[in-house]
Each structure stands twice: as structure tokens, then as C-alpha cells.
Amino acid sequence: LRTRVLDAVAQASDEATLEDLRVSTVGKKGEVSLKMRELGRMSPEERQVAGPALNALKDEVNSALAAKKAALADAALDERLRSEWLDVTLPARPDRVGTIHPISQVTEEVTAIFADMGFAVAEGPQIESDWYNFDALNIPSHHPARGEMDTFYMSRAEGDNRPPHVLRTHTSPVQIRSMQEKGAPIRVICPGRVYRADYDQTHTPMFHQIEGLAIDKTISMANLKWVLEEFVKAFFEVDDVELRFRASHFPFTEPSAEVDIRCSWDGGQLKVGEGDDWLEILGSGMVHPKVLEAGGIDPADWQGFAFGMGIDRIAMLKYGIPDLRAFFDSDLRWLKHYGFSS
Ligand code: PHE
Predict the structure, then answer these.
(1) What tens digit of pLDDT does each residue of 36-51 get?
(2) Which residues does 198 contact at the CB level (< 8 Å), separation at least 6?
(3) CA-to-CA distance for 186 and 301, rounded, in angstroms?
(4) From the CA of 251, how far away is ligand 1's center (Å)?
(5) Cα(175) to centroid of ligand 1, in Å?
(6) Which of 170, 228, 248 should be mutated for ligand 1, with most atoms under 8 A from CB?
């Protein structure tokens, strides 16, 4: 029995086999245990010999089981150490570093140029009340300009009596908010997202504008012209520009002008400051007295200019990008092609 059991223990190749062996030998109904029960029926003389022998066998089997169990665990650990290794000499995977989105880059550039001329940055909400987006800007309910703006209206549950809201169609409502917050005099620029239901090569339903507003006692269109000239020179990195003020109409400015810059197209790339073409870059004018009033500023004492410019549009022009929609595709190949990503 002893040899058979000890051989089986030595042969066992996993823990489950060891456990079976334990149960069938030194377990309650195991072979060794059954033999121990027979001790009771033996003569004292026999018992004196068999008792210690069986106890010794039991101890021997138990320690053989424990030793084998430890050996199996060691072997398993060795095996893990052999298979789970790490090659620290492998080259690291290339780390792709993100970059600032081109529209954000251009926004920062434009903001910095105006900051140099003393303009502070102001922001307003993208979900705007109908009053700030339209009424306060001298666009009353049935004004045709409301229809032309392709406005996204916020839907309201029945019984919701809050004033109507829209996704702002331009950054001009921030003019009103700035006047109300700061009072006159004011010099701010307001960059941000605006929304219109329109989609083609040069229109996306979400795009970006930057609004400029300067209010003081004697601000005139001459100041507007100088500020814009300085901006165009700095932004397009040219020494000289020629601006053309074209009479236009906006409900919130009087007089109003659209501003073009002299340019040429050299093989698809824009050249600013020379040539026979004109390129429209923004809308502008003197702030309408009704708009000053809506902002809580007395038009008898104060006057000012305002302008609104499409950030995406001037970014397309500066970088020679033909399709506005690509800005919002997040295509890494496109970003790399235009040098917007590493
Ligand atoms: N808000 C006008 C637009 O979106 C631009 C503009 C701003 C015109 C300020 C004049 C003055 O087209």
C-alpha cells in the first residue's frame, strides 16, 4: 500500500489528481483510514505494532501530498515566468500628438491682431433669445431679414411660455450683450459659432463669425477703415492693402457697407493687395441708433462702428482651401495636407 500510494503521489501531474489521491487514501473513507478503523478489532499485541505503523504511513502520505503540491505550484510559476515576458528592446509605437483645429488657430490669430488694437474679447450664448438675435438688432418680427437668415428655431413644449429662442444666426447679439454689460465706451471683438440651415461647398449649418464693436464719443467710419486695414495687413501678412467700401444694407447699421479687398488669384492662390479682383470679406457699418438704445446706450452721446466677418471664410482664403466642409470632417490626411497636423 505504501509504495503504491507514494508512487501515485509522485506521478500526479496536477492539483485535482492530488486531491483525489488524498480523499482515496487519508480521507475519511480512504484506504489508510479504513485500515486504522480495523485497529479496534485487533489484539493488543497486533495493535501495538500496526497502530504506530499506520500513523506513520498517514503522516508520510500527508507530507508527500504537501510536498508534491508545492512542487506543482513552483512548476506553474516557472512556466508563467517563461511565457509572460516583455521585450524591452522593441521600438515604441509612434505617439500621435493632437494639434489645435485650424479654425481655432485662425480665431486666435484674428483675436490677437485686434487685441493689439485694444479690443477685448466678449462671448455670448449659442442658444440665443429671439430678442437678442433679432429685435434688439432692429429686426422686428415681420422683417424680411428674418426669412433670409435660414434660422434654426428651438422647439417648445405646449404651455412653455418662455420667450422664443433660436440658434444664433450671427454674432451680432453679442453687441447688445456687451453694451448692456459694459456700457460705453466699448471696444470688443466677439468670436463664436453661429448657425444657419444651409449646406454646400461654401456653407455649413454651423460656422464661425467674429464681431467687432467700437463705441465712443467721436468714432467714425474713418476709424473703421483704419482698423480693418491694419487687420487685413496683419492677417494676410502684406505691407499694403486697398479696401473698397461698397454701400450695402443691414438693419443694425446705418450707413452700412460691405468691405472688399483688392487681390489677384495666382494659380488658385490668393494674393492680397495687388491685382484687379475684389474679394468681399465682411459686413460693417455705423451702429444704428435703435441698436444703441436696445443696449442701453444713449445715441445722443455715443456712436460707433460694428463689423461681422466669417472666420471660416477668411481661413479658406488664407490657406487656399476650396471646400469649407473639409474643416469639419476631421480627416487626418486633410489636416496633414494643409499643415494643420504633424
Ligand atoms: N451680422 C451680419 C451678418 O451676419 C454681419 C454684420 C455685423 C454686418 C456687424 C454689419 C455689422 O451677415
Answers:
(1) 888 888 888 888 888 8
(2) 150, 204, 205
(3) 13
(4) 9
(5) 11
(6) 170
Average pLDDT in the chain: 91
* Phi, psi for residue 5 in degrees, rounded to 5: -65, -45
Q: Say if residue 317's pLDDT is above 90.
A: no
* Gap between the Cα atoms of 248 and 286, Å rounded: 12
Q: Does pLDDT of 341 surpass 80?
A: no
CA of 138 relative to ligand 1 center, distance in Å:
12
For ligand 1, the distance from its centroid to the CA atom of residue 101, given in whole angstroms, is 25
> 333: helix, coil or strand?
helix
| Chain segment 5-34, per-residue pLDDT in tens | 888 888 888 888 888 888 988 888 888 888
Q: Residue 74 burial (CB < 10 Å; 0-12/13-18/19+)?
A: exposed
Interatomic CA distance for residues 3 and 5, integer angstroms: 6
pLDDT at 46: 85
Pairing label, strands 186-195, 120-121: parallel
Which residue's CA is the nearest one to ligand 1's atom 4? 170
User: Which grid coordinates are listed for 264?
Assistant: 489677384
pLDDT at 306: 98
